[in-house]
Amino acid sequence: HVDTAEVNPSHSNMSAPPHPQPPAKGASHAAGDFSYVGIDAILEQMRRKAMKQGFELNIMIVGQSGLGKSTLMNTLFKSKVSRKSVVSTPEERIPKTIEIKSISHDIEEKGVRMKLTVIDTPGFGDHINNENCWQPIMKFINDQYEQYLQEEINIDRKKRIPDSRVHCCMYFIPPTGHCLRPLDVEFMSRLSKVVNIVPVIAKADTLTLEERDFFKQTIREELRANGIDVYPQKEFDEDSDDRMINDKIREMIPFAVVGSNQEYQVNGKRLLGRKTKWGTIEVENIAHCEFAHLRDLLIRTHMQNIKDITSSIHYEVYRVRRLNETNGQPNAQPPNTLDSNIKYIMIHT
Amino acid sequence: ANSVDKNARPLSLSGHVGFDSLPHQLVNKSTCQGFCFNILCIGETGIGKSTLMDTLFNTNFENFESSHFEPKVKLRAQTYDLQESNVRLKLTIVNTVGFGDQMNKQESYQHVVDYIDTQFESYLQEELKIKRSLHNYHDSRIHACLYFIAPSGHSLKSLDLVTMKKLDSKVNIIPVIAKADTISKSELHKFKIKIMSELVSNGVQIYQFPTDDETVSKINTAMNGILPFAVVGSSEEVKIGNKMVKARQYPWGVVQVENENHCDFVKLREMLICVNMEDLREQTHTRHYELYRRCKLEEMGFTDTNPESKPVSLQETYEAKRHEFLGDLQRREEEMRQMFVQRVKEKETELKEAERELQGKFEQLKRLHSEEKSKLDEKRRSLEDEINTFSKKKAAAELLQGQSFNTNANLKKDKDRKK
Q1: Hey, are the CB atoms on A156 and B78 less than 8 Å from each other?
Q2: Quick one: where's region Disordered (chain A) (predicted)?
Q3: Can you tell me the ipTM of this complex?
Q4: Which of A122, A255, A272, B27 could form a disulfide with A290 if both were Cys (CB 3.0 to 4.6 A apart)?
Q5: Closest CA to B154 of B199, B105, B201, B192
Q6: Which residues in chain B touch residue A37, judged by CB atoms under 8 angstroms apart?
Q7: pLDDT at A84 exceeding the cut of 90
Q8: Min distance B98 CA to chain A CA atoms (Å)
Q9: Cβ proximity of B24 and A110 under 8 Å
Q10: Chain A residues within an 8 Å CB radius of B16
Q11: Would you place residue A340 in the very low, low, confident or very high pLDDT band (cuts 50, 70, 90)?
């Protein structure tokens, strides 16, 4: 990656004279100032293009039922994005096998359009025997990579390949206050290799601040001990600035969150919160819980980075593996005999 | 069971979420990485390509004056790192050398086409690699092609038409009228109309500034109507009023490059850089490159029919190519080795020959030397003999002299006695 501080000179290193005037949008700049070329107008051009194209984001939520996953999603995106809010189920049943259910929404904020897909995994961790419960999830994630790969190697391919790859997998840890359970370790250890995992402590309003800090520290140690790399992964820090910012985040994860769809009157303001007999928990108050930090990380500052890591690292790893797979099987006869003809053509051209 | 709801429902937000910062995050990332922009300038020698580039980017790029005697059209690419505020641009300018100078111009366009295709091929190879790094890849594909039309005032040359026709499906062509200060305003107007109608009637697709985005559609539509841009370039500055402006000074007046009444330079800069640079890059990637890729893959015999075999096919191609390449490499290595062995042998024989010669010379010298020596020896001997003989004679003579002296003495003695 190019270090922001250093510019590599190639054939000749010329820089345009400094101090250009800021560009007027689309119109000509002041006629007398000839030192300005207009290269930085490309930033505006890119912004315009991005606004026009819109963005895509695919978040997967994983955790036992009853941990407040759907509520948290709704709180994060300030609207009923979770599957439960959309598909009304007559009774809340735990499916016999783990299901993967996606639901997509078009949301817009200040002219920025986003297609948000929330992928729910009902049934995870809810059975008596939860061995291999990570498998269907792993398969789903890999299927999305496969779908993208297939589209990418098409001869006639779309201008913009629809991106259904899971950008972020939020893993909900029940607030036991002790340590991670074997299920948590197993899941995160396997999935952190293929997707960005953001672990959160669910229903954190059952932990006091000291219990919370102790729990978080234990979790961090256990993650380290098991070699689990959650987002933001240390090895993908781009430069020292990045590392500084991400180190601070790594000191704080997993975020202890509380979700809510209800607004209450607190000190004359209407705030999202949970009202109990002993007080009202304000969701967006960082003294109460870390929801705001999670939201900032996920949405306001690192969303693009999360997507980049998915496309340039996780997807590429999958692609390499997939393309090498067929290499080790000389007996794998492709059903299409055209391929043997191609080999012939290639060798004799 | 998996179910993906393909129909996204529009949803309204009840509060500020914060993803409106996404464009900013995206732009930030791009700023860190820097941008790439590659311009190809096609035009006859001396038509002002380099000067225009200098003027456009307000820099003095290293320029060489080309000769008019190039046997074939060549392309010279140079890359520069430019920076304006916080934006870093890796600019590559590719100039044709000797375009239009040959007597027979039939092959002129081919080198340009080949160059453009080579850049596409490079990118395709990188994209097809198993372990690839596309975000680090220095994109060398041509984003904009400025075609310099000679200011004849009449019409396009047949070389122009042929070249542009070959290039219009491979690159974004922006035609410009070079050295526009040699044409009067009315002639220019007629010239532009003639050029555009010739392009249309020959089916040449030049780059159209995009009009789908309301922010820029108005200005782009207007500019589309002004094509081709009549440009004047200059690195020299002339004082007008109390300012130094880029201009060309003639006895009859001063042509100011940035005066929109004098030429379309400002419009070109506006369109090429300030408004449409990103679109040029995008069109190159999503249209021209895709077309190249599709044609190339189809040429190699792939079809989209069988989804199962696709990763396999590409993989096999890759392997086959790699095999071929390695074989080629091995062959060349062998050739080089043979050549090396050959050279060594030759050198060896050379040296042996030289050694033999030297030896021969030495022998000869030795012989001469011994001959000399024996001659000298002989001389010495004869000299010695002479000396011997002489000394004998001398001895004998002395003896004789002594005897006679003695005899005389004896005689004297006798005489004395007798007395």
Answers
A1: no
A2: 1-29
A3: 0.76
A4: A255
A5: B192
A6: 56-58, 82, 84, 269, 273
A7: no
A8: 22
A9: no
A10: 78, 109
A11: very low
CA B237/CA B214 separation, integer angstroms: 37
Instruction: List chain A residues with CB under 8 Å of B131.
Output: 316, 320
Which run of H or E residues covers position A214?
helix A209-225
pLDDT of residue A236: 87
Sign of the CA dihedral running B302, B303, B309, B310:
positive
> How big is the A-B interface in CB pairs under 8 Å?
315
Q: Which residues in A lie closer than 8 A to residue B266 (C-beta atoms)? A: 28, 31
**Shortest Cα distance from A217 to chain B (angstroms)?**
29
**What pLDDT does residue A88 have?**
59
Smallest CA–CA distance from A121 into chain B, residue: B2
A229 to chain B, minimum CA–CA distance in Å? Answer: 22
Q: Please tell me which residue of chain B has the smallest CA distance to A320.
A: B130
Residues of chain A found within 8 Å of residue B222, distances taken between Cβ atoms: none
Rounded Cα gap, residues A338 and A27, in angstroms: 55
pLDDT of residue A287: 87
Q: Which of A10, A36, A38 sits opposite B79 (nearest CB)?
A: A10
Backbone angles phi, psi at A13, to 5 degrees: -105, 100
Residue B249 one-letter amino acid: Q
CB B170 within 8 A of CB B116: yes
* CB-CB neighbors (< 8 A) of A117 in chain B: 8
Confidence of residue A89 (pLDDT cuts 50, 70, 90): low
Q: Give DSSP secondary structure letters for A27-88.
A: S---TT-TT---TTHHHHHHHHHHHHH-EEEEEEEE--TTS-HHHHHHHHTTS--SHHHHS-
Question: C-alpha distances in angstroms, A12 versus B79, B115, B145?
Answer: 7, 22, 22
What are residue A280's DSSP bridge partners? A275
The CA distance from A169 to A167, in Å, is 7
Q: What pTM, to 2 d.p., does this model score?
A: 0.74
Residue A300 one-letter amino acid: R
Name which of A16, A26, A109 is nearest B83 (Cβ-Cβ): A16
Distance between CA atoms of B273 and B280, rounded to whole angstroms?
9
pLDDT single digits (tens) A171-222? 999 999 888 999 899 999 999 999 999 999 999 888 898 999 999 999 999 9
- B31-B32-B34 Cα angle (round to 5): 60
CB B205, CB B168: distance < 8 Å: yes
Contact state of B302 with A154 under an 8 Å Cβ cutoff:
no
Question: Distance (Å) from the C-alpha of residue B332 to the closest C-alpha of chain A?
Answer: 17
More confident residue, A24 or B398: B398
**pLDDT classification of A40: cutoffs 50, 70, 90:** confident
Quick one: closest CA in A to B3, which residue?
A101
- C-alpha span between A219 and A236 (Å, rounded): 21
The pair of structure tokens assigned to A277 is 């007999």
Q: Cβ contact (<8 Å) for B243 and A106?
A: no
Cβ neighbours of residue B279 closer than 8 Å, sequence gap 6 or more: A45, A49, B209, B210
Enter the DSSP assignment of A230: P
Q: Across residues A257-274, what is the average pLDDT?
A: 83
Q: Could you give the C-alpha distances from B78 to A12, B95, B347, in angstroms and in order?
A: 8, 9, 42
Q: Looking at beta carbons, which residues of chain A come within 8 Å of B306?
A: 334-336
Q: Confidence class of residue A26 from pLDDT cuts 50, 70 and 90?
A: very low
Higher pLDDT among residues B103 and A315, named by residue: A315
